[in-house]
């Protein structure tokens, strides 16, 4: 009994230490954001005085709210398009057992193995041909299909009990009714996880938007943070303002994580149990 308690104590201690290691950079970032400039290189972890005016300057002297709005609304549109297309494709790949369907699924997975940078040049040329460069619509169009989302939901749809599907078919359910009354309700936790993953990817994406977006009014938060860092924090001039911007940029992802955390845990638990 004592050995079991000791093992549990060691496990909890290790988890606490790992958690502290993971969140320490974020705590350090927040501490820098509330320090005066004179204390940045003092070596002290806690500031002598708390300067929350760095956040006031962030909202009054920069375009951070504009960058956040662009990233959030574009990411939400991408989530809707990717989830809808992934649900339809995953249903086909999970339910149709024909050879050509399996071949198409294998071909799609093969394209997922290619580095994303390979697609930048052809995508850039394609968007330039249709005059969608430096536009949100062009970025949304280029991110409308996700191979990962299709694969992720296909694996979740496979786990739907066959008896439930057969019962729905006997009740006269067609393909769309099966999707909306059987597959989506059964896989709602997996879909919630995919929503969070898609948002994080789209919200944090930097390389492709930096090549596509050039005008100030269309910039996303990742590009805006880099511009802010180079203009305000270059050579250590205003690190507190840059760190305040980084802290504010985390708020949408933390809110989304708080909303979907339970469903994500249930989704991961189901995947683990069904292995």
TrEMBL record:
Principal cellular location given in the protein's record: membrane
Compartmental location: Cell membrane
UniProt key word Transmembrane: yes
Topology within the bilayer: Multi-pass membrane protein
InterPro entries: MetI-like, MetI-like_sf
Protein name: Sugar ABC transporter permease
Species per Swiss-Prot/TrEMBL record: Lysinibacillus sphaericus
Pfam families: BPD_transp_1
Segments passing through the bilayer: 12-34, 72-93, 105-127, 139-157, 178-201, 239-260
Residue intervals of the ABC transmembrane type-1 domain: 68-260
Keywords recorded for this protein, A-Z: Cell membrane, Membrane, Transmembrane, Transmembrane helix, Transport
């Amino acid at each position: 009994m004592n050995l079991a308690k000791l093992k549990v104590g060691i496990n909890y201690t290790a988890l606490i230490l790992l958690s502290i290691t993971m969140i320490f950079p974020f705590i350090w970032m927040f501490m820098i954001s509330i320090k005066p400039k004179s204390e940045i290189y003092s070596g002290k972890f806690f500031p002598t005085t708390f300067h929350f005016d760095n956040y006031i300057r962030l909202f009054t002297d920069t375009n951070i709210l504009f960058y956040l709005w662009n990233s959030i609304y574009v990411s939400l549109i991408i989530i809707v398009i990717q989830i809808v297309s992934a649900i339809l494709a995953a249903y086909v790949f999970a339910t149709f057992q024909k050879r050509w369907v399996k071949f198409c699924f294998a071909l799609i997975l093969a394209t997922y193995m290619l580095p994303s940078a390979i697609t930048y040049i052809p995508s850039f040329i394609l968007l330039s041909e249709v005059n969608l460069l430096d536009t949100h619509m062009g970025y949304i169009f280029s991110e409308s299909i996700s191979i990962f989302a299709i694969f992720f939901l296909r694996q979740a749809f496979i786990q739907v009990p066959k008896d439930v599907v057969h019962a729905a078919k006997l009740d006269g359910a067609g393909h769309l009714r099966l999707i909306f009354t059987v597959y989506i309700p059964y896989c709602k936790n997996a879909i919630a996880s995919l929503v969070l993953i898609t948002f994080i990817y789209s919200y944090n994406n930097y390389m492709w938007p930096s090549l596509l977006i050039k005008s100030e009014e269309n910039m996303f938060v990742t590009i805006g943070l880099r511009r802010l860092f180079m203009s305000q924090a270059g050579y250590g001039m205003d690190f507190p303002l840059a760190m305040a911007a980084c802290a504010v940029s985390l708020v949408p992802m933390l809110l989304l994580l708080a909303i979907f955390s339970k469903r994500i845990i249930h989704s991961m638990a189901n995947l683990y149990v069904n292995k």
